[in-house]
Design a protein that fits this description.
Elements lengths: L15 H21 L3 H25 L4 H24 L5 H24 L9 H21 L8 H32 L1
Helix pairs in contact: 1-2, 1-3, 2-3, 2-5, 3-4, 3-5, 4-6, 5-6
């Protein structure tokens, strides 16, 4: 006997979180263009919209039971595309330190490489970001918003403390991913 799916998953709105994640992917190109042209106020507006939408799609998916494997992957791809692009462009323009950009990129490369290895060696992967990872993504967005506010000459908190918080969270959450997913891989390989 097949169990009935929950009513929430039958809602015509169930794909809304995925659509919001796709919107974030689409926003990456105009954000990059605006950053390269030093349109700081417009960049700030688009990054703020992308940051808020990241929270909204996650809330909708969890609250209404609209979570899916595709949604988890779209959310992760949207976050990585947006954040890595912003950090690389701002570092290239001399607005954020290269060492911080390399830490952000190295963490995301580590996570993406781990996902590819998992897929090749074990099977399908179901994205499960930890609270530490969510905090890291959130602080990266906060840091970028502070940097862009200052560049747009808006009153902004100093990004200096956020810079170090982002660096620390990237390192710690990257190590957390390695430990947690290595343990899961070991269990999966020895369970079969």
């Amino acid at each position: 006997m097949v169990a009935a799916m929950p009513a929430a998953s039958q809602s015509p709105w169930r794909h809304l979180p995925n659509a919001i994640s796709m919107l974030r992917v689409v926003l990456v190109a105009p954000i990059c263009w605006l950053l390269l042209h030093r349109s700081w106020s417009s960049s700030l507006a688009f990054v703020a919209v992308a940051g808020v939408s990241d929270g909204v799609d996650g809330f909708l998916a969890r609250h209404y039971g609209w979570q899916s494997r595709l949604g988890g992957m779209l959310d992760a791809i949207a976050d990585k595309l947006l954040l890595v692009s912003c950090f690389v462009i701002l570092a290239w323009l001399g607005e954020v330190p290269w060492w911080l950009t390399l830490i952000v990129c190295a963490r995301d490369l580590l996570i993406a490489s781990g996902a590819v290895l998992w897929r090749l060696l074990i099977g399908r992967i179901y994205p499960q970001p930890s609270l530490l990872s969510k905090a890291c993504t959130f602080m990266q967005i906060v840091y970028l918003v502070c940097v862009l506010m200052a560049l747009a000459r808006w009153p902004a908190p100093s990004s200096y403390a956020f810079m170090w918080l982002v660096a620390g969270l990237c390192v710690v959450s990257g190590l957390d991913y390695v430990v947690r997913w290595s343990h899961r891989a070991w269990q999966a390989r020895h369970a079969s």
